[in-house]
Write a structure and sequence with these properties.
7 strands, 4 helices, about 15% strand
Length: about 120
């Protein structure tokens, strides 16, 4: 898994990864790794040392169904309550700082996706 993809998975799965690391007694070591990840530096080796890389990769493989990278059809996506028409321009939520490749499609009823790595909402665009 390349750095940008790994950082996207880390962004999405960090809360659960923190729980696993805490249970294993590696919570402080994971937290020490996060500043490098926030800078966009490679953290693959450190996550492997902590026994978290394989777990993160398996979660990512299950979370991305085939064809998930395809653009939605049509020019608009229905989102009730977003504006008076309930529609927004086509786009995705992306990393607020451009550190990773995480991209989330807006879905009706979903909360605004948040980057756990930067503790900031994803930007739409």
């Amino acid at each position: 898994m390349e750095t940008a993809e790994l950082l996207g998975a880390l962004c999405r799965e960090l809360p659960a990864l923190r729980e696993v690391a805490e249970e294993a007694g590696d919570g402080p070591a994971l937290e020490e790794t996060l500043p490098a990840a926030r800078r966009g530096d490679p953290v693959t080796d450190r996550l492997r040392e902590l026994g978290l890389l394989e777990l993160l990769e398996s979660w990512t493989a299950r979370a991305v169904p085939p064809g998930a990278g395809a653009e939605p059809s049509g020019g608009l996506v229905d989102l009730p309550g977003v504006d008076h028409s309930g529609r927004v321009p086509r786009g995705r939520y992306r990393c607020p700082l451009g550190t990773c490749r995480r991209a989330e499609l807006p879905r009706p009823g979903d909360d605004l996706p948040v980057c756990a790595l930067h503790d900031s909402p994803l930007r739409f665009g």
